[in-house]
Design brief:
The chain is of the alpha+beta class. The chain has six helices and 16 strands. It is about 20% helix and about 25% strand. The N and C termini lie far apart (about 40 Å).
């Protein structure tokens, strides 16, 4: 006998399974683009057992294939998300003029690509480097959240003295907001710069970690997210995620 209490909202299941974001799932359900064991789901809030098969119609698949993801080299002074306190969001740089002329993607820029484009993760206003903006809920889910396994790599310029013991603490042994931090990879790049590789992204995490061991951050640049690198993308310019690239 089946227990109805074991059912979960289909939109949540779709997000958990990496099919799309919950918001996208609701939009697809409204259009009749979601199939549960081959049968269209049309009612928002519908539930299913976790072992039932959820698939998308060709219309939904085509929409996902047409969605764009961009790599942006965010400069200092722009916020990664919504405009706040008079500061402009990084998305203002998504213009035809700021498109990197070395972009190898065949995708052609169009203002309609702004619709639903959102940052997949954040980068502080006083930090620079790689920021991902995407219309694809699958990529957003992959990159955002406490349980994301994706590495983020940063080059961090610091001032102050760092003992071998404190370097070990940066790698593992510090806590923020009452929670132990996940194991990191922190090493000297040169006498003024550290390389941080993290699998989490608490607010201002690197700066706060450095403060705990007596260092002051004077510059912070994100150079890699997963397998995607900033490379030679100029500051304040952007390019499309290539068809052969994945995180």
């Amino acid at each position: 006998m089946t227990d109805e209490s074991e059912k979960i909202r289909i939109s949540k299941l779709m997000s958990q399974q990496g099919i799309c974001s919950r918001r996208e799932a609701d939009s697809y359900i409204e259009r009749g683009w979601v199939l549960l064991d081959g049968v269209p789901v049309t009612e928002l809030g519908s539930r299913a057992f976790p072992n039932q098969k959820i698939t998308l119609t060709r219309n939904a698949q085509s929409k996902q294939d047409a969605s764009v993801t961009i790599l942006l080299h965010k400069p200092i002074g722009l916020v990664s998300g919504q405009a706040e306190k008079g500061y402009r969001p990084a998305s203002v740089l998504f213009t035809a003029e700021a498109h990197y002329n070395g972009d190898q993607s065949p995708i052609v820029y169009h203002p309609m690509q702004h619709k639903g484009l959102a940052p997949a993760g954040r980068l502080d206003i006083d930090s620079t480097g790689l920021l991902i903006l995407t219309q694809d809920g699958r990529i957003a889910k992959q990159l955002i959240g406490e349980n994301s396994p994706i590495e983020k790599e940063y080059l961090v310029r610091v001032e102050g003295q760092l003992s071998a013991g404190d370097l070990a603490k940066l790698n593992f042994g510090l806590s923020l907001d009452g929670q132990a931090l996940k194991r990191a990879q922190v090493s000297w790049l040169n006498k003024e710069q550290l390389r941080f590789i993290l699998r989490e992204g608490k607010k201002r995490q690197i700066r706060r970690m450095c403060e705990l061991v007596g260092l002051r951050v004077t510059g912070l640049k994100r150079v890699r997210i997963g397998k995607v690198v900033l490379g030679n993308l100029p500051e304040s310019q952007w390019r499309y995620l290539g068809a052969n690239e994945s995180f």
